[in-house]
Amino acid sequence: MMVRGLVRLHAPHHQHADTALQVYRHNDMGHLESLLAAVPSGTRCLVITDSLFSMDGDFADLRGLVALKRRYGFLLAVDEAHATLVCGANGGGAAELMGVGPDVDVHIGTLSKAVGAQGGFVACSSQVR
Predict the structure, then answer these.
(1) Which of 10, 33, 40, 84 has the fewest CB atoms below 10 angstroms from its CB?
(2) Who's near 101: CB < 8 A, 6+ residues apart?
(3) What is the rounded distance in angstroms from the CA atom of residue 95 to the CA atom of residue 106?
């Protein structure tokens, strides 16, 4: 099963038992916003998406995700597996191409596609780490 987008809901730091996983419809920012609006204030959230969907060849609405991130304060993780070294002026992926690279909290990628090597990466700021 290919999951196109996830909303991971976390309880506050001192609680770990109440974690929920929700899936929002493909590139549907309205549906994602309705899920986020239902999250109690103070709840930590992580939204995860591919940047370039290999099955369809379409891009995630990264600008829309960043706008929602600014409104709801979630962490944003973008899987750039199909866009690393393919998109963006420096090969930084779809986030670079769309001008939202600095707004992405966690960049995920692979070295086995455009790089032609083994391995992958998860990159984030020391603040997120």
Answers:
(1) 40
(2) 88, 92, 93, 95, 107
(3) 11
The rounded Cα 128 to chain-centroid distance in angstroms is 14
For residue 87, the number of C-alpha atoms closer than 13 Å in the C-beta half-sphere is: 23
- pLDDT tens track for 18-48: 677 888 999 999 999 999 998 888 888 889 9
Place of tokens 């419809």: 25
Catalytic residues: 54, 82, 113
Question: Token digits for 121?
Answer: 């990466």
Residues 92-123: tens digit of each pLDDT: 999 999 999 999 999 998 888 777 788 888 88
SS3 (DSSP) at 58: strand
